[in-house]
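Please supply some protein, with C-alpha cells.
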Amino acid sequence: MIFEIKKENFKSIYNILDDQIDNVEVKAVIEGNNPGWIFADSNISPKTAVVWSKGIQGFYFVGDHNNPEFNNYLNDHIDKKIIPRVIKENLDRFEFSGENEKWCSKLEEIFANRELNKSKQMIYKFNYDQWDNYQKRELNDKFRLRKIDAELLSDSKIENLDYIISEILRWWDSCEKYLEETFGYCIILDNKIVSYCICNFVYDNIHTIGIETLKGYRRKGLSQSAAEAFVEECIADKLNPHWECMESNLASRALAEKLKFNRERVYSLYSFSFNKEIT
C-alpha cells in the first residue's frame, strides 16, 4: 500500500535518502521550506517514497528502489490518487526522476506500459576558488540592478510587479516566507522588471538559482548581472549557490560555466502525459 505522509512526519523520510546525493529539492520540502507532498509505503517507518515539489511540478523517487510493497501499487496509486490532484494544479503530465541511477531501470520497468519521454538534467557546483579572478559584466546605464526585498515587492511604481511575485509564489508558500529564507535580484528598465535571479529552494546553506529574462531583452547580459549579484551575496554570507538546468538548455549551461560553476552530475528525467479528464 501507499500512504500520504502528513507534514509533521515528513522528516521520517530522511532515514531513506541517499547520503551521496544533495537532494536539495526533496530536503527543502521535508523541512517545510518549500511546498510539496510525500507518499510512502508506511506512515511510520517508510522504506520507499515519492516526493512532489510544487515549484518543480515534478516527483522524486527516493529510498529502496526494489520495494514490492511500494512498486506493485505505484501505477494504481498514481492513476487514482495523484493524477486527480495534479490536474487541479493545471498539469497534464507526470514528470519524475529517481534520486540515483539505481532508480532508472526500475522506473522504466514500472512504467513500461506508458509512453515515456526521457531527458537529462545537469547539476553544477560553484567553484569558490575561481571567483577571485572573475570579471563582472558591466550593466548598461539604462538598466538598474535592484535587490528583491520587501520594499521592492510593495513598490507600486513597478508596472509588472506581478511578474516577480507570481514566480516567487510558484516556489514558495508566500512572499513573506521567501524573504525570511532567502533573497534575489532583478534588473529594471523604466520601472519594468526585465530580468531576475531568485532562489527556488533552500536547504541548510544551499540556495538554488532560478533565472529568467523577458523576451526582447535577452542576449544583453541581464541574467548574468542578476546572477552575479546573487552569487556575491551567497559568498558574503557563506552560502552555497546551486545551479541546475536541462541538458538541452545550452544558454543556461553556458552561463553557469561562465559564473564559475562546474558540472557535478547528470541525471535522467522522465515524464508521461495523461488525460486531464481523469477524475
